[in-house]
Amino acid sequence: MKVLVSGGKGQLASCIEREWESARQEELILASSSDLDFYDVDSLSDYLSSNQITHLVHTSAYTAVDLAEDEPDLARKVNVNQTRSVAEACARSSVFMIHISTDFVYGGPGETPRKIEDASPESVYGLTKLDSEKAVLESGVSHLIIRTSWLYSSIGRNFYLTMNRLLGEGKALRVVNDQHGTPTSAFSLARFIIEFIRSKDGFGLGTKTTMNFSNEGSTTWYGFALAIREMNGLPGTVAPCTSEEYPQKAKRPTYSVMDLSVLCGTGWENVTWEEALREVAGK
User: Taking every annotated instance into account, which residue ranges of this chain make up the domain RmlD-like substrate binding (predicted)?
Assistant: First the structure.
């Protein structure tokens, strides 16, 4: 077993590296665009074969959600074209591909957890990520597509670290309270990916599966921010506001709590988002 992770300097790739057993680091390769050309199918396929890669975790993506509305071509190039090239290279080299997608593929009103077939993106970012999933499917590669939500950790740039910094500085913040979803620890997702790769039968998920992954439960961005403040004893304040009061260029899912029945069926021992936050905060 030998695993290549794209987006090698990003949050999830860094969490996978941290969670990987130190005694088995030789089995893990993190690569960014400066290391490999993920658009060149021929050279990437040759690299995968010559280095005996068995799994590729594709975390590389264009994730500037609002900027994507102004840069749709670039967002599509990175999220769709690059993913298509990676999938085709993996298919050619018989490498299993794990592709990371997002809750932004869900849109419209909702009150019940989102199932895979509920995809209806309302932003450029969400549309390109759904099309990236289609590119994987069309390639014929053996794969696991994972849709995840509100990913955060103590690494990189994310909502948790931003709130921790601003509230730690004593700022008075207003955070939207009408968008519902589930904060997900990138460490939780990293562990799941690692255990999936190391399991004998891939948790019984098969060779062509799309699933949701998040921690358990749900909240709003305001609820998440308030929990961060209280968990870390920060001096700043948090007040709720509506999405209309805090306009953003890209439309966010108003309800992206995800159905976790496939995840539950694997026997994975999930935790609540509050428990995961406690771990990240070191409490």
Answer: 1-280
Contacting residues for 230 by C-beta, under 8 A, at least 6 apart: none
* 96, part of any domain: yes
Q: Is residue 84 part of a domain?
A: yes
Total tally of structural domains belonging to the chain? 1
15 assigned to some structural domain: yes
Give this prediction's pTM: 0.96
Within a domain: 247: no
Name every residue whose Cβ is closer than 8 Å to that of residue 175 and which is 6 or more positions away in sequence.
Answer: 221, 222, 224, 225, 238, 239, 240, 241, 246
Q: 104: closest CA among 89, 120, 82, 87?
A: 120
Catalytic residue flag (residue 125): yes
Helices (H), 77-123: 83-93
Residue 207 sits in which domain range?
3-157+184-216+257-270
Q: Which one from 62, 125, 152, 160 is the annotated catalytic residue? A: 125
Separation between Cα atoms, residue 234 and residue 57, nearest integer Å: 36
| CA 73 to chain centroid | 21
Q: Alpha carbon of 32 to those of 36, 42, 61, 92, 198: distances in Å?
A: 7, 17, 11, 21, 23
Q: Cβ distance 69 to 124 under 8 Å?
A: yes
Backbone angles phi, psi at 232, to 5 degrees: -100, 5
> CA 102, CA 282: separation in Å to the nearest integer?
26
Q: What is the pLDDT of residues 113-168, one digit of tens each?
A: 999 999 999 999 999 999 999 999 999 999 999 999 999 999 999 999 999 999 99
Residue 11: which CATH number?
Answer: 3.40.50.720
145 contacts 99 by C-beta, under 8 angstroms: yes
